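User: Could you walk me through two proteins back to back? I'd like the raw sequence and the structure tokens for each, with a short line separating them so I can tell where one ends and the next begins.

Assistant: Of course. Protein one, sequence then structure:
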Amino acid sequence: MINEFDTIAAIATAVSNAGIGIIRISGSEAMEILVKIFEPYNKKADVYQLENHRIYYGNIKDGEEVVDECIVLIMKGPHSYTKEDVVEIDCHGGVTVVYKVLNLVLKNGARAAEPGEFTKRAFLNGRIDLSQAEAVMDLIDSKNEMARKNSMTQLKGGLSDKIKQLREEIIYQIAFIESALDDPEHYSLDGFPEKLLEEDKKWITIAKEMLDSYDNGRIIAEGIRTCIVGKPNAGKSSFLNALLGEERAIVTDIAGTTRDTLEESVTIDGITLNIVDTAGIRDTEDIGVERAKKEIESADLILFLMDTSVQISEEDIEILQRIRDKKKIILLNKSDKATEESGFEQSALKEYISEETPVISISAKYGDGIDNFIMELKNMMFHGRIDVNQEVYITNARHKDALAKTYESLECVERSIEAGMPEDFFTIDLMNAYEKLGLIIGESVEEDLVNEIFSKFCTGK
């Protein structure tokens, strides 16, 4: 039976042969457990009297048997990650050693921690709110520098502060309406709708800005779902290798070598591309080709490689028509082989692409034009302006959903005011907005949702 007041323990580092392994203990009995298994180098020292936020050297013992030399870090509540008494044992990192120490801790009174239970306790004990707790996992999972910075901004309260400020302003207006309705002699609502409308429009703008940041935020956190397409032998795999800096895809001079989709991830200047290198699209029932067509539909960005050493073909035209409404970059490959005699006419593309569609000449084989592609990529996906040091980007679908409902409620308030509705109508939608914002930081969230969120964490965190 799981009890939230149990003292818990888990391995907080990767379980492998390493220089160090950390066992984390949290709860009211953390020090009692330490007394049973830790012998300080100074054997006269009383473990109960060891000072807070100090590191001590000694032995972990199972009775008279020395299990390992270690150092112990003591962080007594409330000045710890969980706001409970926390002990961390830093022992040698061998798998056998780490598990031996953990089992010894469990034998002496601790319970094995559930995934994310340390961070869950930090949330339940009020050290961090729910959005900050989720930022911890985002930080662990960050795929690039921009994702790391955005996660740190949220962990420090960048998103929480905005949400809390909005909630404070909204609840103030709700309280004023309720007070005026209950005590009209002392609180007047004359001119109040006009003032509330001004405030409401400000809140709508803030909510909209946060909502609009989700697309960039998702790209920062998850990467850009990128599909490389082109007819057989256009150089798609060579281009992928040029981005990866290594030969992860099979590159040959035989058309149609890539028979299925090949997925890779590469980070360029802080932007992660989740690249799908597809089979060459051609008139065939090949399964790989069918998958390629499906990938085009789900991609955030299409990179269409065209072979400029030959004339534009019907296959090229078919692809252009298929990606007409998709965000795309046209890459004119094999520029090193292109000649006037090749018959490739770039002007023919105008019928199928807009003036805003980037068209870049490259040689995947020699790496020419790759820098121009990267520059265009950043301008296209982030409109040339993204700064994770200055802004908070929404990266969590749960947060986006709550903000969308907040936005809808605030718009309802605006319509009610403009329609001249009674003031008590305003409070219904204002309270809805207040509660939806509370879901983001965990002020009004069900226990099942909390458990679901923390179940996605790694054990030991």
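----
Protein two, same layout:
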Amino acid sequence: MMERTKSQRVLVTGGTGFVGSHLVDLLLRKGYDVTCLVRDPARLQWLTGLNVRIMQGDCAQPESLVSAVRDISHIFHVAGLTKARRAGDYYAVNHVGTANLLEVCARHNPGIKKFLLVSSLAAAGPSPDGKPVMATDVPRPITDYGRSKLLAEEETIRYKDSFPVVIIRPSAVYGPRDRDVYELFQWAARGVTVEVGNGEHYINPCYVEDLAAAMLLAAEKETQSGSTYFVAENRVYSWSEFRNILGATGGVKALTVKVPYAAAYLVGIASECVGLLTSRPALMKRQKVREAAQKDWICYINKTETELGFKHAYPLQRGLEITWQWYRNNNWLR
């Protein structure tokens, strides 16, 4: 085992989650000494049995972060909410939590080599004109999730002259362990896919292993502090193509149900009401319907390829094949 030194000790927030756990796996394979900040050490999920250092802490409580950030060379801030019962929860976790972590880092580890924030294409918003969204474009988030991520980006940029920071904006991330896009697999396995609104829609998907690889490149490469990089497969798929490949790779035949925006919006209201009664985040909120109705969720990743040397390794068909197999092997799907 490699000797523990500051030069190779990294901190990952959100390591018990979908994206964070895949990043932890990659960091361990590359020989990094990994510390994971977790709120509840009794719920380690994908970290169980791994050679990682567990530090209990919560980004909502700055005093709990001090020990975790000391003597760390890189911080990968992956923790965040993708679903919430109340809009305010997004801001409390994604925005304020990021601000707290940055402030503690500035006070107790100002010599950090790099702080990496995992944001989202949602912070930039959908393309308004059919052209891939660029990092230099004015952000136009359309949901509270997207706005909370944009505020987290702005907090991160505030520290760009204090220590090196970099922002990663992945598009729709999918892969083993995911519970968000998983819902599409569930419906497809039942023989149904849904399309909201009229006309064709376009996306840049992002396989989780490609995202983890891009994050590590962004941490290791010399980058201008404050840089923003989109991460996705460098190919645009129509929603029809995505549905066809989803069905083919899963060996299922699914009927596409086209739902008018107004009807989907009503479903969103009903889902939110159920969420309030059950104290669980709604599966299909009105803001999710608004996202699904947008024509173009596409981004420009040439900068990511040029400056970081990133090349996606998992085209959609391969990524979906692996994901279907994982869900079935782990009894998430039959």
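The chain has a mean pLDDT of 91.

Let me know if you want the two compared in more detail.
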